[in-house]
Amino acid sequence: MSWFLLLIAGLLEVAWAAGLKSCEGFTRFWPSVFTVVTALSSFVLLAMAMRQLPLGTAYAVWTGIGAVGAFVLGIVMLGETVSAMRVASAALIVVGLVGMKLSSAV
Question: Model's pTM, two decimal places?
Answer without folding.
Answer: 0.89
